[in-house]
Prior knowledge:
Blueprint: H1 2-15, E1 31-38, E2 43-51, E3 58-67, E4 72-76, E5 81-86, E6 92-97, E7 107-112
Antiparallel strand pairs: 1-2, 2-3, 3-4, 5-6, 6-7
Amino acid sequence: MRSLIILACGAVSTSFGQKVISEISYKEEKQPLEYVYLPNQDKVVIIQGKPVNKVYKNEIQDIWALDKDGFTQKLISNERLANCVFSPIETAFLIGKISDKNEFPKEYKLNLD
């Protein structure tokens, strides 16, 4: 009886295991700020950076795109950006470059897929 209970617990724990899609390391200065699901491309975008006490609220440093097959793509790497907005058809995104002053970005960068 005892071995049957152990076998049942083992089967239940393996059937509810989670699948790891990708391993992205998080640090204090690069923590996840936002998760965006893009239904047309069936991807999840992870925006990493750090929260700041300025007008634009978050300093974006890295942007990752993940698909359901485990493919990981780094869209932005080691930059200081703010206000990421994706296009309605999800083929481009607009992101502001941070100035040294406490003001909204005046210069924007357009990234096309």
